[in-house]
Amino acid sequence: METLTVDQRMEALLNELSLEEKIQLLTGRDFWTTWPMEKIGLRRILVSDGPTGVRGEAWDERQPSVNFPSATAISSTWDPAMADRLGAASAVEARRKGVDVVLGPTINLHRSPLGGRHFEAFSEDPVLTAELAAAYVNGVQRNGVGATPKHYVANDSETDRFTVDVQVDERPLRELYLLAFEKAVVESRAWLVMSAYNSINGTTATENDLLETPLNSEWGFDGVVISDWTAVRSVDAAKASQDLVMPGPDGPWGGALVAAVQAGEIPEASIDRKVLRILQLAARVGALEGFEPVQAEPVDKEDLVAFTREASAAGTVMVKNDGVLPLDPAATGPLAVIGHNAKHARTQGGGSATVLPEKVASPLDGIRAAFGADNVTYSIGAIVQEGVAELPLDQLTNPVTGEPGLRVTFLNGAGAELFTEDRRSTALVWFGGDAPVRDSSTVRLHTIYTPDETGTVRLGAATVGKTRLYVNDVLVHEGKH
């Protein structure tokens, strides 16, 4: 009896699919997952942000994530072994949350101090970035989860990030922008690469020849090119080496791509190559029946909280110590701590890299623990909060359960209750989960707020749409945002 190779088995699965089914696989099913295909034993693949932690399918404080140090902090260690451990830890978190692919590392360069996402990227140095990115990818994939170096390529500005056209000569393109990606692909064999929003020399990244050369033809990339979310704008991207459009289920491919193939504008062989790469990714992460995953369960595990503390300390750089440090708690008099972020710690840079940790130890918490709460006085100083601050969880009581938090109710246009959930935060985003966001006309948040000190409290709300704020059933504010 003839034994088929892995490639032959993949081809056999491909041949079971119609053109329409193949093309369906090339656009996501929803915001975070790909389409399953039961007839060939393919389950969905779940992807998740991001490089400073793994959020999971839902942006939900009830499913907290470890908040790892930023990539910039990791780069300050100058230690590829630390980046490798970060990757392995990220894979452990991913598997805990049922995630198959981590959408990181972010390895765009710090080309300007104004870059809004620099915190989640390593460095301005392409050599340092390449070394750390390769180590991170090794760590993630050694534990059986796909890594996704992003955003390919020259995506170093948040200003006009959807439309900017980066004009760059061949030498700096190769020696700066591409070099940052090369080692993660050539040596660490990344299973995915994310294409960017921007254009390079007049052509958007998702339609650019750079997806083929050097990525495939020179570097030997055999993985999936996944788009940044909504970065694919047309069927023309299917002519390039762009494999997977995210998010779904809507997008520019679908029926339009079926028609383009049937009209002979795009070869079906090009579609087949994309599908085979997605099937290979599925096999690697354990999403395809009959194929052994690279690693079913993480083998490289450690205490994630202890690692986070160690990595944070290793990435902390002291510019100068003139003999003041370390302070001796036994010999130190009363201390004054001043500053908004000393009490309300800012541990993340925001955006899609945001995760929701179970708890955060602020600088003030640490100083009080080290020197004694009675020896430390605190003043908020200048308030640096932008927008509406969250209400502290320990000052909120859910009126239904009596537990810390609030009750959230979704209502339809007639005022009928569709869904309720108990939450532990007043800053809520619904990406994933069971809440019927599309079918709801009103979202009602109800809590009992008990401040920890007497004084004037300024209450506000920031929402999409119309807002009504009630205190003791009295309407105190109404506005449209």
Task: Report what the structure shows.
This protein is α/β, with parallel strands linked by helices and 481 residues long. It is built from 11 helices and 17 strands. The strands form 7 sheets. Strands 1-2-3 form a 3-stranded parallel sheet. Strands 4-6-7 form a 3-stranded mixed sheet, with no helix packed on it. Strands 13-12-14 form a 3-stranded antiparallel sheet, with no helix packed on it. A hairpin with a 5-residue loop joins strand 12 and strand 13 (417-423). Helix 4 (80-96) packs parallel to helix 5 (126-142) and helix 5 (126-142) runs parallel beside helix 6 (170-186). The longest helix is centred in the middle third of the chain and has 18 residues, at 268-285. The protein is globular and about 75 Å long. The N and C termini lie far apart (68 Å).
Order of SSEs, N→C?
Answer: HHEHHEHEEHEEEEHHHEHHEEEEEEEE
Count of distinct strands: 17
Biggest sheet details: 3 strands, parallel
Strand order of the largest sheet: 1-2-3
Task: Based on Cα principal axes, name the global outline.
Answer: globular
Helix content: 25-40%
| Low-pLDDT ranges | none
Beta-strand fraction estimate: 5-15%
How far apart lie the N and C ends? Answer: 68 Å
**Radius of gyration using CA atoms only:** 25 Å
Query: How confident overall, as mean pLDDT?
Result: 95
